[in-house]
Structure formats: structure tokens, C-alpha cells
Amino acid sequence: MRWASHLQHDRRRSVHTVRAYLATAHRFIQFLGSYRGEAIGPPELLGLSAADLRAFLGRRRGEGLGAASAARELSGVRAFLKYAAEQAGETAQLPRTRAPRRPRTLPRPASPEDARGLAEDVADAASTPWIGARADWSPPRVAALLSQAGSELIAQPLSHAAMTAAPDMAMRLLHYLEVTRCTAALPAVRALVARGTTDIAVRVACLKLIGQFQDPKDLALVRSFISDSDEGVRAQAAAALGTIGMPADEGPLIMLLSDSQWDVRYRAAEALAHLPFMKPERMSIVHAPSRGSVIVAE
What we know:
66% helix, single chain, 17 helices
């Protein structure tokens, strides 16, 4: 059906949404054929009245459809009628019909099915900039909801979208990935941080993600940024070494205790204290030559 192809390819709707809109269109055409007693084609669709829409909604409400679901059904019908008018080369003149009034209720947790549907919508649209452009969305809350539906579903699309997004959008996408804690994002994050043209702030966010995932395979990549010219990159590389570092990284981190930037010194001291192999007795030895520094790990 061309309607389904239009939704999927032109409107970039998810499989979940296409399935729902297609079912609505089929129900609507079947109802009209029975209600009006005639075959329904483009001329009949373009000549519908508000009474026809009200009759359809009345039938659906009589079948037990709630107010919120009926409103979504009406939205699907309007989209279908607009598409039919465009295909006929006409300007859509949609009958004016109010959607059913939704009662005010307390918010309820999303069901697993709704959460998975939302995740599918985000995953399908992740290659477009709109997710990163939504500065009003709270990354922790949205990512927590999507994680319930399965982080694997969204991690790869979001990480690949970050590869080509503008810096501010890429930062927002990386914040979503940070909360999902899904290692499926690592290949794209590694490529992004190693790319020479990557924005400094985005590179710092990538290093933060790499440190969070704690994959030993990233050790060489993190080490390559420990003496970067940018203080933010040096500081985040030091923090990442604190989670995956080896004994050989103790020396470079001690050298960073004398860095000209306070934040780098602080991160290096913190990383030394958090090294997986670091013991209290060894820390006391590391502290000794650093007592003159501004920051000393405790």
C-alpha cells in the first residue's frame, strides 16, 4: 500500500507507527463502505463530512476505545485523508471534528510495550538531527525510559548520529549514551574521539564515555591524549586512566600532578587513587614527592 510506503520512506516513521496508521486506514475504509453502502475511492474520501468522522469515532468508542486511543485514531485518519488529497492533486479540506476530551489523570509508568514503541521511534529517527536538537529533553529521564525497552536498540543509532552531528547536538547525543551504559556505542565513540577534526568538547565527552565503559582495549587510545595540548582533554584522559590504567600509567599520571592547570592536577591525583592496582602503602610513597604540589590525592 502506497500509504505505508509514504509513512516509512517519506515521513521516516517507525515500524510501530506505520503498523498503527495502516490499521487505522483499513478500519476507516471498511467502516465507510459499510456506513455509506458504496465502494470507497479517492472521490469519496475527498468528499467526507464531519458527520462521517463522528460516526466512525462513535463506532470505535462503542467498541470500547478510550478517549486517548480515539484521539490517536482520529489523528491517523486525518493524516491518511491529507495524504489522499495530495495524491489526487487537491488541497486537503479536512472536516472539522473535535478529538474526544481526555480526562485528567495522574501520570502512570509506561508499559513495556509503550516503552519499546518509543525506543523504536527514537532508534528509527536517530539519524536525523531532531533528537540532538531537543534541548528541553532531560537525558537521564529519557534514557532511563529507553533503557527499560533495551539499550541495545538505541545505542548504535545514537552513536552513529553523533558521528555526523554538529558539536552541540553531538554532545546531547553522547549524554544519552552516557546514561544508557551500553557498550554497543563504543566503536563509534572510539572513531569519533580519534578523528582529528572532532570538536574539543565532543572529544572530552567521548573520553568520559570510554572511561565509564572501562574496556582495557581502549588503554592505548586514552594514553595518546594524556599529553594533549587542551587541558580539558588531558584532564579527562587522566580520569579515564584511573579506571583502566596499568602500572605503566602511574608515571605519566604523577607527571600530571605538576601540570599548569589545576583541573588536570586534580584529575591526575584522583586517577592515581582509583587505579585498579593501587594499594594504600603504594599511595603513601606516591604522595611523598608530591607534598609541595597544590593538589595531592587522598
